[in-house]
Queue: 2 jobs
Job 1
Amino acid sequence: MAWDNVLLEKDGVVGVVTVNRPKALNALNGDTLTEIGLAFDEVAKDDEIKVVILTGAGDKAFVAGADILSMQKMTPMESKAFSLLGQQVMSKIETFQKPVIAAINGFTLGGGCELAMCCDIRIATPKSMFGQPEVGLGIIPGFAGTQRLPRLIGKGRAKELIFSAANINAEEAYRIGLINKVVEEDQLMAEAKKMAGKIASKGQIAVRLAKEAINEGMEMDLDKAMIHEADLFGLCFSTEEQREGMTAFIEKRPAKFTGK
Ligand code: CAA
């Protein structure tokens, strides 16, 4: 499926969502944000898709930020609405019921870094560059970067990156935990699909509940988060996946999960 700025393709159990504005380094204008949301809505309806890969078209950028041309003349109310739209799309991805892997090849700046951060796992190529350049434009990150970056890499490093507007390379991004893995450019999609395949072979309800436990638990105090985990752990025992997974272990055979 295709919209003006976003593509959705399917490769077996993997859905690939591509931000497709390579001439503007895949910068996020309002239409592109809306279309990313629509693509994820389509993926949600497709039971065959178990894992999503989010990537950027072309060989220069994942996403080089929110679209500066479209923001230049915005009023305060328009820019607030733009920020809320971006935040909604990022939250939709973060809480999406299927795991989302960002496959990153190039500039991942501002809104692009924010988009990558709402994915569950980030794989990048050595030439990729990361940063939150907003203060250099006289603004702050507006798609939840001031919130997700400190949660991901810690407050001190997040402040350094945001206040300095400095770009960092993939090696440094890996070192500080902003990305999970660095792979050669010609291996990027293969690696992302390999990881997607590995996840897709497991119990899908269990993966979904693990995502929920991590995401929601991180926003709670530890005692409440552990009770939440115990509730979700208990819920696993209502699934066929739990019966199949444990029976398969005891029978010394691979589990055949059905997503039920
Ligand atoms: N918005 C709109 N257009 C953009 C863009 C952006 N964020 N980033 C790149 N482009 C466009 C350029 O204007 C250029 O278009 P033209 O060919 O029509 O001139 C095209 O993409 C190619 O870009 P460059 O010629 O600049 O390519 P380069 O290789 O010389 O530089 C770059 C690459 C360092 C990424 C540079 O393009 C750049 O600095 N981009 C802006 C990065 C940025 O500041 N992002 C943050 C935006 S603010 C934000 O995201 C706010 C938020 O949190 C919501």
Note: The pocket of acetoacetyl-coenzyme A is lined by residues 24-25, 27, 64-69, 86, 107, 109-111, 114, 133-134, 137, 141-143, 145 (CB under 6 Å).
Job 2
Amino acid sequence: MKDENGQGLFHSGYVTIAGKPNVGKSTFLNSILGEKVSIVTSKPQTTRNRIIGIKTLKDSQIIFIDTPGIHKPRHALGALMVKRAKEALRDVDVILFMVEPSAPSYDDIGIVKLLKGFPLTPVFLLINKTDTVKKPMILPVIEEYKEIYPFKEIIPVSALKGDGIDIVLERILEHLPLGPKYYPDDLVTDQLERFMVSEIIREKVMEETEEEVPHACAVEVIDWSEEKDIISISANIYVEKNSQKGIIIGKAGLRLKAVGTSARADIERMLNTKVYLRLWVKVKPHWRKNETALAELGLK
Ligand code: GDP
Ligand code: MG
């Protein structure tokens, strides 16, 4: 899309996928994101929206998020979960509702009831697994769904074969508002959590040092190991000068400790699991001028 000066405009937004277990949501995501991208393994999560994939195109970016509670039929949700699912869905630009190529089940109808709380959000019905049925069988399914919800689009797809995926992508793009490129181009989802962790740490360093170390710091996650119910993360905080190192560490290490405590709280909330965080401050002279160092830090 172009503005009146012929400049390209960037669009970006959030999309969530609702649907019963096993309808093909993960398969669909893999297909739409491309094979290069691996999807973050799902961890138990309750209240937060997790980013499960990002599709970046020349002038748009779609962020797929997982919305807690939305895969469950409404009757299986407590009042609080319904409330949270609704809060989580409020800021989504498009909801994809994926179903089997058969009449709506009790559980599907439960999800539809939940969707009715968002009359302003466009909902696309994706009838998946169309490769398993004969074409004429799909029409009555469409008719039945039309009766229970005013879907913005109804698109038959086969996530497994890749059929209809381009159409879904096109229609999503039509509904994305103008917005920034929230995430770097080549960020694949398995790197995403690391990237977000490093951003959280960097933000906390800035907060704690009150910009005494402005922009002169970079954070690199150097180790990430997932155990039973805890994730151990080690990260280096790089600065250019010894004096900056001293500022970040603080008297008796208190400032670095404060950075760690507050970063850990945010990271635990994001990952929804206990986190053990170890931070080191290292001096890398002139890292900002040094291309190799930048590349190492994933900044280039
Ligand atoms: P999810 O639980 O909704 O994430 O579903 P998955 O993506 O894990 O898929 C569940 C099963 O359905 C897997 O065995 C997939 O291979 C299969 N599946 C997904 N999409 C299709 C499709 O379009 N056609 C067929 N035949 N099978 C599919
Ligand atoms: Mg899945």
Note: Residues 240 and 284 are 5 Å apart (CA to CA).
